[in-house]
Design brief:
Strand order of the largest sheet: 3-2-4-1-10-9-11-15
Largest sheet: 8 strands, antiparallel
Number of helices: 20
Structural class: alpha/beta
CATH architecture of the largest domain: 4-Layer Sandwich
Bound molecules: 2-deoxy-2-amino glucitol-6-phosphate
Number of domains: 3
Strand content: 15-25%
Radius of gyration: 25 Å
């Protein structure tokens, strides 16, 4: 997804913006640009490619002026090239704008712009906005009013930063795409995400849906639907160091290794208030996407088994087709970023029907937290890599604590608190997983199988592999193989069986046997000697308490995906076609 940074203060804006944009690298982009204003003159440089290459070619960080904006673009409308890159300007070079999101009524705006005699130079929906602003300005001669009138015409999702050459102000607007405000001393910032600004400030506030704001170097004025609103900044505990690689080759590996600490922080929280809130409901309905959805599946298993509370888990983008309006049902929305459009949309729909919302996110102050009636957190720190690793295990831990809070099983809560120690031990398997990745080089199809809690673990393992190696990976409940997928098995196809000891082990042995009979290669992760004896490649795991299965067993799978990606010379931090924060539906 696109990245935005805006600055207004005393420093040279382009240098600040260039540095901050570097921290949004993880969002993925194909072109970038910066614009500044000095002495009522606009300076703008942009191009397709990586930031540092653009810098080498045209020194974008050296543009003059103490107010400006920057953008990293992830192409949606129009190919990645210089003309389509942001910022965009009007034909008189008076207004300038960066945009994140998708404008749905762009055809109508294009007609409006063209009938005013303006021919857009790019293929983007974003450029149209700046021409509409100019058009409005020619009528009202007031920059703020022109921006306001234009925003009222926009349909779709947007985070916008706009400036006019004769004003020491940045105009901001948000609808569907996040925009965070950073408070400095005598300087103000805005960005798509907190990590971009952490080395400048720890004080943040988020713009909310339909906010229109004016940023000066002294502060911010926010309006929502015409009314002025106050939003106090919150202090974020994350440090700038947390958003750096600190000697690791990739953020993915750093974040895999940060799991013991992330789990410790997450398990330390007291969920008393959250448990009391959730107890009021007869059923729980989880909405989430991707990895967060897998974490939700682990909760379903625990809360139904231990607290006897019925639980449904729906992929957020499917919620509207499956919704039940039942005031006895609590919506539990899980999202690392708290900004995922599909999850937010499901939550808003449920809220609209009078349902109560509990949110689990990793980002204090995110949109999802603000939509929710009650929120709790994973304390995993910033996750920069596009693939979720430490936030998955932290989500599972936080959710397990909630499940045992609801079942009243204090002992089980204590078991969850042991997660950091188990994960620390399992991280010693890094060398083993690297060697395993070497053995698996050249394989193109992978099947992950598991039962009960090991099934969402297998799903998460398959997701990691496909996200960063681009290899075909699928997960099945092990018992489902014989109902179709067995036909896909051939000699040497890797089957990764997540098979801890306990109630599922003997059935897993049977399922492994089915695969062996088709000459597949079995990799089994288990602490059960009988399971391990069945495997071509046994991966010995320590015995773990049942609720820790997803947390402990996913780690070798994360490492396997990571090492395979590295061996394949792929960048695991920035998988193709994917973005960290998916802010479009
Ligand atoms: C995880 O590795 C993925 N990048 C993706 O599936 C992610 O979990 C999904 O987009 C949901 O994100 P969220 O947790 O921020 O809502």
């Amino acid at each position: 997804m696109c990245g935005i940074v805006g600055y207004i203060g005393e420093k040279q804006a382009a240098a600040v913006i260039y540095e901050c944009l570097g921290y949004l690298d993880y969002r993925g982009y194909d072109s970038a640009g910066i614009a500044t204003v000095e002495n009522e003159k606009l300076h703008l440089k942009k191009d397709a490619g990586r930031l540092h290459d653009i810098e080498k070619k045209m020194s974008i960080s050296k543009l003059p002026g103490t107010m400006g904006m920057g953008h990293t673009r992830w192409a949606t409308h129009g190919v990645p090239n210089m003309v389509n890159a942001h910022p965009h300007t009007d034909s008189k070079n008076e207004f300038c704008l960066v945009h994140n999101g998708v404008i749905e009524n762009f055809r109508k705006l294009k007609e409006e712009v063209e009938s005013a005699g303006i021919t857009p130079v790019s293929d983007t929906d974003s450029e149209l906005i700046v021409h509409v602003i100019q058009n409005e300005y020619s009528k009202c001669k007031n920059a703020e009013e022109a921006v306001r009138r234009t925003i009222a015409k926009l349909q779709g999702s947007f985070a916008l930063v706009i400036m006019h050459i004769s004003e020491r102000k940045l105009f901001l607007a948000r609808n569907g795409s996040p925009l965070v405000i950073g408070f400095g001393n005598g300087e103000m910032f805005c960005a798509s995400d907190v990590p971009a600004l952490l080395h400048h400030t720890k004080r943040f506030t988020y713009l909310e849906e339909n906010d229109f704001a004016v940023l000066t170097k002294e502060g911010i004025r926010i309006e929502n639907k015409g009314k002025q609103v106050e939003r106090k900044p919150v202090e974020i505990k994350w440090t700038a160091e947390m958003a750096r690689k600190e000697g690791y080759k990739h953020f993915t590996l750093k974040e895999i290794n940060e799991q013991p600490e992330a789990l410790r922080e997450t398990c330390e929280q007291d969920l008393g208030g959250v448990v009391a809130f959730a107890k009021k409901f007869r059923r729980i309905h989880i909405v989430a996407c991707g990895t967060s959805y897998h974490a939700g599946l682990t909760f379903k298993y625990l809360v139904q088994k231990h607290a006897k509370i019925p639980c449904e888990v729906t992929v957020a983008s499917e919620y509207s087709y499956a919704e039940i309006v039942d005031k006895d049902e609590l919506i539990l929305a899980i999202s690392q970023s708290g900004e995922t459009a599909d999850t937010l949309s499901a939550v808003r729909r449920a809220k609209g029907k009078g349902m109560k919302i509990l949110a689990l996110t990793n980002v204090v102050g995110s949109s999802l937290n603000r939509e929710a009636d009650m929120a709790f957190y994973t304390h995993a720190g910033p996750e920069i890599s596009v693939v979720a690793t430490k936030t998955f295990t932290s989500q599972v831990a936080a959710l397990a604590m909630l499940a045992f809070g609801l079942s009243g099983e204090k002992k089980m809560e204590e078991e969850v608190r042991k997660a950091p120690e188990f994960v620390k031990k399992i991280l010693e398997k890094q060398g083993e997983m690297e060697k395993l990745a070497e053995k698996l080089m050249g394989k193109e199809d992978f099947f992950f199988i598991g039962r009960a809690l090991a099934y969402p673990t297998a799903m998460e393992g398959a997701l990691k592999l496909k996200e960063i190696t681009y290899l075909h990976a699928e997960a099945y409940p092990a018992g489902e193989l014989k109902h179709g997928p067995l036909s896909l098995l051939e000699k040497g196809v890797p089957i990764i069986a997540v098979a801890p000891s306990g109630e599922t082990a003997s059935k897993m042995i049977g399922n492994i046997g089915e695969c062996k009979a088709r000459s597949a290669t079995i990799l089994a992760l288990s602490d059960d000697d009988e399971v391990l004896a069945e495997a071509d490649i046994p991966i010995k795991m320590p015995p773990v308490p049942e609720p820790l299965v997803p947390i402990v067993y996913v780690v070798p799978l994360q490492l396997l995906a990571y090492h395979l990606a590295v061996l394949m010379k792929l960048d695991p931090d920035k998988p193709r076609n994917l973005a960290k924060s998916v802010t479009v539906e």
